[in-house]
Amino acid sequence: MSKKPFVTKEQVEEIVKTYPTPFHLYDEKGIRENAKALKEAFAWNPGYKEYFAVKATPNPFLLQILKEYGCGCDCSSYTELLMSDAVGIDGHDIMFSSNDTPEEDFKLADKLGAIINLDDITHIDFLEKTIGHIPETISCRYNPGGIFKISNDIMDNPGDSKYGMTTEQITEAFKTLKAKGAKEFGIHAFLASNTVTNDYYPMLAKVLFEQAVRLQKETGVHIKFINLSGGIGIPYTPDQEPNDIRVIGEGVRKVYEEVLVPAGMGDVAIYTELGRFMMGPYGCLVTKAIHEKNTYKNYIGVDACAVNLMRPAMYGAYHHITVLGKEDAPCDHKYDVTGSLCENNDKFAIDRMLPEVDMGDYLVIHDTGAHGFSMGYNYNGKLKSAELLLKEDGSVQMIRRAETPKDYFATFDCFEVGKKLCK
Ligand SMILES: *Cc1c(COP(=O)(O)O)cnc(C)c1O
Prior knowledge:
There is one protein chain. This protein is of the alpha/beta class. It has 2 domains: 9-24 and 281-412, Lyase, Ornithine Decarboxylase, Chain A, domain 1 (Beta Barrel), CATH 2.40.37; 27-280, Alanine racemase (TIM Barrel). Helix content is 30%, strand content 23%. It has 13 helices and 19 strands. The strands form 3 sheets. Strands 1, 12, 13, 14, 15, 16, 17, 18 and 19 form a 9-stranded mixed sheet that branches. Strand 2 (49-53), helix 3 and strand 3 (72-75) form a beta-alpha-beta unit. The longest helix has 20 residues, at 200-219. The structure holds pyridoxal-5'-phosphate. Residues 53, 55-56, 74, 97, 190, 193-194, 229-231, 273-277, 370 line the site of pyridoxal-5'-phosphate (PLP). Pyridoxal-5'-phosphate (PLP) is lined by residues 53, 55-56, 74, 97, 190, 193-194, 229-231, 273-277, 370.
């Protein structure tokens, strides 16, 4: 089974004349079609809004595209807030879903008028001390504990996760916030990551909607929105069936009508904070085979490394690989595809069946559009790549240049030695 890249060998040969490999390439057409489909899937809910999880793909050009479809930003750090503000997304179009939050971050979120989503009950006092008041609109993050299952499948383990408040805490938090003047309330939970099933959101919605009804009854607050957060996944492996966002939207609508509407809560807005689902499939890492090494195993060395895409090294995550121009060739060679870090887990694939790879071949590493470039780091002094946008008209726009040694040394500007290094 295989996956078809959104870029061809001919296109890549053209692109590399201007932008050398490795680079991350994004598919404007795919991003737009998907954003439109999401919007339509939740159009039944008048208050619906997607807050794109900026950490997945923090690039202002891409945030701008999503903004055209009504998306706001889900931020959890100071610089993510700055980036959101820089593209004109501010006020209640920012959801600030942070945890272990520094004072300065709360201050900036408040200054931008963001909706603040509190991760812990102790953050009520911390926030009030830091910004001098409690915002009128406020959200709390919920963690029901235990294990989150769909039928008999364990999806994730919320009881083990650092996020959110217990049932007792969120009840207490709502009472306290109400007493301190908060008027509009939100509930948020993120219980499972990268779910490739249409059932996750409706199941999560049921948990949250039932909590919302209970909280409204017990605390008398007005619940304005329920934030289903992220977690809708993508098929990284070719055999997985992609989620159908229409089915998911419809599933959430059903639960909404079963639980919220009879409780007189038919005015509640649904929010989402999708990251992976919005961008994952619409980005790829393009890299070139530069070495072949045969020892106890057969290795293909490429010009990208874990610095450009950390997921395989960090989680053992599968990313499909296409050798451009050999899409129809038999996958009859077994390789480890490696980067150049002095770190043995710097492998994009282990024991992967691929067509015979020749030096100079271009490899497309699929599904790097979310949590790809953004997880990058600078180990071994490796530099981060450029990000390019393949536009709908087939042209290519650079939306972030590649790092240079000067960028790498920039933080040594306090030392004399910096002057020589950064020349
Ligand atoms: C990471 C994150 C998201 C996005 O998660 P995806 O798996 O990319 O959909 C949404 N909300 C919060 C609070 C997050 O930390």
